[in-house]
Design brief:
disordered N terminus; globular; 20 helices; alpha+beta; 2 domains; about 50% helix; about 500 residues; four-stranded mixed beta sheet; about 10% strand; five-stranded antiparallel beta sheet
Length: about 500
């Protein structure tokens, strides 16, 4: 079995195990677009409200259906011609994609999130499955319009006609724990109203109770991991995601920091129209992020640089990290900016915690294996006395810093992002992995490697990432290295971008 197949098989096995027993909960970002078409109304309540036992039954039925279909196809293929076998396999992949994605879309919550994650990490995945999973970004079945509007009205505590001058019954986006409706306030402002599915919080909370099994599974996937601390960190962040009051505070923190930014748009929160399960924000007219893949090379590189600057400026200067970097949380605004959505999963850092990342970066770019190893052990990223030389340790960790090692343009490829996936999960090939750990401070930062860099790899963009990073690192604070950097520097000079 090839390395790629082994890694993918391992990931699939873990995802299926989690789907069947734990249902890790994390939210798929909801996107708002004037050009996004809503799915049709449904005549039943969301499956998200089912109990944990009922969710297991639904997934058990899915697994049984798929096993039976595969068995029948295998039997029919034994005596078939090569051409017929290829057709049977293609038909099987299509049916499997439709069945799995249909179930995930209805299930909502954790399971839908896992499917969405697989859609942008699944190099080597059959094309029908990849395309179908990608549809979870915006085409998930919504809850019935009457139910959604009733939930909004009940949560805000007033009749809809008193709350809004207009509100569309059909959602403009539907995802893992809620959906979004376009509305107009009585003073004429367009807003996006996000409402949770009834019962989703209770279903997810029930799943999160079983942290012992989750810790065991994480330990199996990531040898050498200290899973207990990491589980508690993830549990805390996921519980925060379910609280729209918390998300509103996070989003407004980013909106205040990036106010007036030339390239970044964080929709402001409408506090008087937001509660624990309804979040109302500015409406962003624009296109789904996937439209960038059809743009020119120059536009792809412009958007990629904006994403990179947003992630690392927020971390290094604002000491916060939006822990869900994926295409479903980005929107190409009509005015040329990139809008960033979904701030439920945000990690707030202390200055000394960000300095921990900086110590490792400086040792890496100074090419000092002994200093790097000592820092990695001190921060519990590497187990003490791992049976490898300082140079071996340094060389293994280099993959995570490859884009910033040298002051020169580097192209991010899918090969690079998939290579990070191998390194993070394939302990059979990467023996050092067994001696590494992900302490709580570093837990969500791994999403950069598996989220942001995956997007950059799919875009195939080139930039001097080191020079851009030196603008954002506090200890270098270098001058602008690109036209976008110059515009951002002017924004800062005008008094914006103060540390939050």
């Amino acid at each position: 079995m090839s390395v790629l197949r082994r890694v993918l098989a391992g990931l699939v096995a873990v995802v299926l195990a989690i789907m069947a027993s734990v249902s890790i909960a994390a939210r798929l970002g909801l996107r708002r677009s004037t050009q996004a078409s809503a799915a049709g109304p449904h005549d039943r309540s969301p499956i998200a409200a089912l109990t944990r036992g009922q969710r297991r039954v639904e997934m058990g039925r899915l697994v049984a259906r798929r096993a039976a279909d595969r068995g029948i196809t295998k039997a029919r293929s034994r005596l078939a011609t090569d051409e017929t076998r290829r057709r049977l396999q293609a038909d099987l992949e299509r049916r499997e994609a439709e069945d799995v994605v249909g179930a995930l879309g209805e299930m909502k919550g954790a399971l839908m999130k896992l499917g969405q994650m697989a859609s942008y990490l699944g190099e080597g995945m059959p094309e029908p499955m990849r395309q179908a999973l990608a549809g979870l970004h915006s085409d998930a079945p919504p809850m019935p319009s009457d139910l959604a509007l009733t939930e909004i009205e009940a949560s805000l505590g007033r009749p809809l006609h008193e709350l809004f001058a207009e509100i569309d019954g059909e959602p403009i986006a539907a995802a893992s724990i809620g959906q979004v409706h376009r509305a107009v306030t009585h003073d004429g402002r367009e807003v996006a109203v996000k409402v949770q599915y009834p019962g989703i919080a209770d279903a997810i909370a029930s799943d999160l109770d079983n942290t012992e099994r989750l810790a065991m599974l994480l330990g199996m996937v990531y040898p050498g991991l200290n899973p207990d601390e990491l589980v508690e960190e993830l549990r805390a962040r996921i519980n925060e995601e379910l609280d729209y009051v918390n998300e509103a505070a996070n989003q407004q923190l980013f909106a205040d920091y990036y106010a007036g930014h030339p390239h970044v748009w964080i929709p402001a929160v409408q506090d008087d129209l937001s509660t624990t399960n309804v979040l109302t924000t500015e409406f962003v007219p624009g296109r789904l992020f996937e439209a960038v893949y059809d743009e020119s090379r120059e536009e792809k590189e412009r958007v990629a640089e904006i994403l990179y600057r947003f992630v690392f400026r927020s971390l290094n200067r604002q000491y916060v990290f939006n822990g869900d970097p994926h295409p479903g949380n980005y929107l190409l605004a009509d005015d040329g900016r990139v809008a960033f959505l979904d701030f439920g999963l945000v990690k707030h850092f202390e200055e000394d915690e960000v300095e921990q990342f900086a110590v490792l970066i400086r040792a890496m770019i100074d090419r000092d294996p002994a200093v790097f190893r000592a820092a990695a052990e001190k921060q519990d990223v590497l187990r003490p006395d791992a049976p490898f030389s300082d140079q071996d340790i340094y060389d293994w960790f280099t993959a995570y810093y490859e884009l910033i090692l040298d002051d020169k343009p580097i192209t991010v490829t899918t090969g690079y992002s998939v290579g990070l996936l191998y390194q993070t999960f394939d302990a059979k090939t990467h023996a050092i992995l067994k001696h590494t750990n992900v302490p709580p401070t570093f837990a969500l930062i791994q999403r950069i490697n598996l989220g942001l860099f995956s997007i950059l790899g799919q875009l195939g963009v080139t930039a001097n990432w080191r020079a851009i990073s030196e603008e954002l690192w506090v200890w270098t604070d270098a001058p602008a290295s690109t036209p976008l950097g110059e515009e951002e520097a002017a924004w800062i000079a005008a008094g914006a971008g103060a540390a939050g």
